[in-house]
Structure formats: C-alpha cells, structure tokens
Write a structure and sequence with these properties.
With about 350 residues, this protein is α/β, with parallel strands linked by helices. It contains twelve helices and 16 strands. The protein has two domains: about 200 residues, Rossmann fold; about 140 residues, 3-Layer(aba) Sandwich (Rossmann fold), CATH 3.40.50.2000. The longest helix is centred in the N-terminal third of the chain and has 14 residues.
C-alpha cells in the first residue's frame, strides 16, 4: 500500500504527533510525507517527500496572532499550483492532518482522503465549544481541510469517530517527579513579555521554552531554553506544573502525568478557545491572557491540590490500527477498549 501522510507544520503539535504515528503507520505500507508550513521549531525526524511553505502563521509578542503579517504572506496562486502538482492520485490512501493543499488537491482530482487528527473532531457538534461561538472559526475548522472521511482525536470521546490523544512513548514510560519548577511553553509570547510577568514570582523557578532563544540563558528566576523535543520531555516529566497554550498534545501529556495545568489560548485561534472550553469542563484552569494581575491567578493555582488526571489505556499502535481498519468503512467499531477514563482528585 502506498500512503501519503500530509502534516501541517504551522505549530509543533502536529510534528510531535506525526513522529509518534509514523512508525506504526509504516507497518501498513510505504509512507511518503508532505510537510506544509514554516512555523514549527521541531524537526520531523523522517524523510520528507514533498515540502511547501503552506499557510504560515505569525504571532505578536503578546499572545495573539499577527493578522496583518499572516495575510501579507498568503499566496493563493502558489497554493493552487502546488495542489495541482501534488500527485495524490498515485496513492492508495491519503491521510491529512489538517493540511489545506492536500485537501484542495484531492478535491480537484476527485481522490478520497481521510482527515485524521485533532481538528477532525470538530466536525461533530458534540465537541465542546466556548460559550460564544465564532462563525469564521467554525468555518475554518470544518472547511480548511475538507475530506471524504474524518477520524478525530480529543481529550474525551465526544462522538463515535473521535479517538483518545496520542501520547509520546517517552511520556508513557516516564516516572513523573516534582522538582519544584514550572515549565512554560507559550510560543505566542516574546521572551521580554514572559520575563516581565514571571520574574516577579520570585519564590518559583521557571523553565521557558522560547521561540526566540537559540541557546539556553538565565535571567533572574527564569531559564530560557530553545524548543527541543528531548529537553521539553525532560522538563515536562520533572516539573511541578505547566503553563501553556490551549493546544492539544502538551495539555494531554501534562494531564497524563498528573501535572498541574494552566492554559492560555492564543488570541485569534478559535480552536484553542474550544480546547480551553473542553479542559475547563474537566476542571482545568484557563485564562485569556497574561495580564498585570497574573500573580493573583498564579498563586491560588499553584497552591491548589486539585488535579485532573488522564489515564488512557491505549497505544499509538491501537489508534493507527483503528484508523487503518476504518478507512473507507462507515461502520465504526466500539471505542471502549481504547478510550481513557478521567480521575479527578
């Protein structure tokens, strides 16, 4: 079987998930990778057959999308040309992790595809949304990477086509410790802004994974580190708690290890506000931004003993097996043997 696996590289979460899924997927056939986007700081540890700038996202220094810069770099003619040239018709199976060029190519050439990933879960109205829905955000989630079939990933099984999160092997095998520091991964904030907000919390140490740092450096009670898979895993496994965006992979792994979790959705990314709504229903704290009152939020959060623990009884191989046996089959298997239980202490 020839498989095309298209991965969005507008953030590190898709890359991280792909590195876990790829070895299991390769058991079913020859896999070619199409990587689209230029915002990830992680490198995909596998040969890439096709590469595109795709749609790039740019951020301000204050936790929001930079709309002007994002729109200025939008190149519709290039995207359409790349879609026409992408040979999706030569593959037995096209898997698409929320990548628009592949979706356009499949539509143009009438090739079936499977949208497999976190964003696919939002095809269901049962998947949590914030109190105030955004029509544009809803449209993007449902139309950015249209496919003939959807298999989603989320924190809970909100619908019969939604599977549990993919957890990295390093995290599954780890014995979590509490070494007292806080891990911070807020890629939409500058180091300057993070230092301004965190340096006043002198009783605590912070390890900040930075989009700007090219080498580690310390400033007051903060250690700034370049984004690196191995170092981030180690930091996450040994931290007291984590402050991060309301993405998917990192919050899922933090909850798996029973870490304290505080999420701050990236302004302008509707999906993250949807994730925050789902996490809040599970008992996880979410705030809109790092404002001047952050210390009044931080201390009650870090001192609270309340925990939400995700204990999935599954493997990446089981998820990929379900995916491969479901492709082209509208009949859904039972997910009970896969799905995690949530323990709230």
């Amino acid at each position: 079987m020839k498989i095309l696996y298209s991965v969005q590289a507008t953030g590190n979460g898709h890359i991280s998930r792909a590195m876990e899924i790829l070895p299991a997927l390769q058991r079913y056939g020859d896999v070619d990778i199409f990587l689209s986007g230029a915002n990830s700081t992680l490198q995909l540890d596998a040969p890439v057959k096709f590469r595109s700038k795709g749609l790039c996202l740019f951020y301000s220094s204050y936790g929001d999308l930079d709309y002007f810069k994002t729109v200025a770099h939008f190149a519709p003619y290039r995207i359409l040309k790349e879609a026409r040239e992408l040979p999706v018709e030569k593959y037995d199976l096209v898997l698409n992790d929320f990548e628009s060029i592949t979706a356009i190519a499949c539509n143009l050439k009438k090739v079936p595809s499977v949208n497999f990933g976190h964003q696919a879960s939002f095809q269901s109205e049962k998947t949590p949304r914030p109190t105030k829905k955004e029509w544009l955000g809803e449209w993007i989630l449902k139309n950015y990477a249209k496919a003939s079939q959807y298999i989603g990933l989320h924190f809970q099984s909100y619908d019969d086509f939604i599977l549990p999160p993919v957890i990295k092997k390093e995290v599954l095998k780890a014995e979590p410790l509490d070494n007292g520091y806080i891990t911070v991964y807020l890629s939409s904030y500058s180091d300057k802004e993070l230092h301004k907000k965190l340096s006043g919390l002198k009783e605590y140490r912070f390890q900040v994974f930075s989009r700007e740092a090219v080498r580690p450096y310390k400033s007051d009670n903060i250690e700034f580190l370049p984004v690196n898979r191995e170092h981030f895993n180690k930091s996450l496994i040994n931290c007291k708690g984590i402050i991060t965006g309301a993405g998917f992979e990192t919050p899922a792994e933090a909850l798996y290890m029973g870490k304290k979790l505080l999420v701050i959705p990236i302004g302008g990314q509707y999906e993250q506000f949807c994730n925050a709504a789902a996490l809040e229903k599970m008992g996880v704290r979410s705030i809109e931004n790092l404002d001047g009152q952050f210390d009044s939020i931080f201390y009650p959060w870090i001192e609270d003993n309340h925990k939400v623990i995700l204990r999935p009884d599954h493997s990446t191989e089981a998820i990929v097996s379900f995916l491969m046996h479901s492709c082209g089959d509208q009949k859904k298997n039972e997910l009970d043997y896969l799905y995690p239980e949530f323990l709230i202490n």
